[in-house]
Request: fold
Amino acid sequence: MISKQKTFLIVGLGLLGGSYAMRLKEQGYYVMGIARRQETIDYALANNIIDEGTIALDENIRKADYIILGLYPTTMIDWVMENQQYFKENALISDVSGVKSNIVEPIQKILRSDLEFISAHPMAGKENSGIEHANTEMFKHANYIITPTPNNTKEAIEFSNDLANVLGFNHISVLSCEEHDKMIGFLSQLTHVIAVSLMNTHDNSHLVEYTGDSFRDLTRIAKINEHMWTELFILNKDILLDEIDAFASSLQSFKEVLQNEDEENMKQLFRQSTARRIKFDKK
Amino acid sequence: MISKQKTFLIVGLGLLGGSYAMRLKEQGYYVMGIARRQETIDYALANNIIDEGTIALDENIRKADYIILGLYPTTMIDWVMENQQYFKENALISDVSGVKSNIVEPIQKILRSDLEFISAHPMAGKENSGIEHANTEMFKHANYIITPTPNNTKEAIEFSNDLANVLGFNHISVLSCEEHDKMIGFLSQLTHVIAVSLMNTHDNSHLVEYTGDSFRDLTRIAKINEHMWTELFILNKDILLDEIDAFASSLQSFKEVLQNEDEENMKQLFRQSTARRIKFDKK
Reply:
């Protein structure tokens, strides 16, 4: 349990940062926010998402026991470097970043020795971004993955687990940064590459009136935040390139079977995909 | 308007044939059914889906003014060849097949001169098959595409349009067989190839607990009827091979941009996919 006497600072009030703040405040914690634009702070105050907020960094940060970085991955390292001088002694820091290997250890390396960074990936969020879409419902069916390194204490991992419970996540698990990035490279990043590449195959706006659910479902994630995903993909480049190659080769195998009108092997590929996909049906 | 005095024969009481029968009977038409198995006929009679049904072909077929072929594409030609001797004079025949170019003209060619075949593609149906999943709801949000050839009369095209209205389709359009097959090659067949190839990329059952909606949505159609889709793909082979190549080349372009960490062009690809996908949002 995280004591209600503790104070949180959310750095970056976007969709995820804003939703964290909203839920923590609802649960009775004192929540401070930092954003780049005053209008974000005004919105967060007016909608009861934070208790106090600022666009200027100052001694006030020192009140926070827990600091959640809701920033873009590459921004995080610089921000910590510049601002950890203002952090409370022994403060615990976490994040919401979607890639880990090239982020977590670098931050741990530059961190003041009394501070600890425990990284986690809340697998929530939709096509929308911005605090105006913040809501606490999106955690209810989502996974929360804690990605500790050998530098982390048992207490910090416990805190991360407690935080996920306070936020109301459906499922909490622990993976190494490498396992996390491999999993995310396949399940999330490759699927986005596929959806984007499919939309980019032709200009198909003349087909809109014939479109059924399967095309819409498959390409929903082709509406994509270009800045964040460019960062995430490049930070996970090697793994994602491997996944693209593996998928391209599976696609090529299918193409050959079709080219040869090899009915038996085509049926076999269909049976395999069906059997595998059934395991992914929601229980 | 199709007169309520007219009699329908549905050949093949699967998901689509069964749903056609159910809706036509609901609307007051006399509906006969032919199936391969007596238990399908028994089910259809017990559930008020047909007025009469048989597994044996006989003179009774001659009662039908309209014959809807709910058969697999390649089965259709042989079935018509063998059984058109029993068709009523001047009967009108239609189908539900998902590919057209290699089906429609061949059937028109072998048809008795007093008969007419007007082809259509009801773009309804889910992962399920079989009459026990028949329902009339699935037509409500679906497209119905009439694919006439120069051999078709204006009256037959009008009948097909009226039939779509009786069935309750949301949107009716007319395309040539070639336009239809190109559209379906991209919007439906390529998306199924992608979903199947993605599931076949790795054995990923250990990732089930981390899976979010985007992966589930993208791979939903990887659960696939191996017999029907093998036929549909091979019948539309040339178009589908072109679509696979076009998509593979779009995927390759994305891979190069990632390999080069070319942020500007990656963002451009994201902006293009986003702009295109927005047009496909349901109004």
About this structure: Residues 196 and 202 of chain A are 11 Å apart (CA to CA).
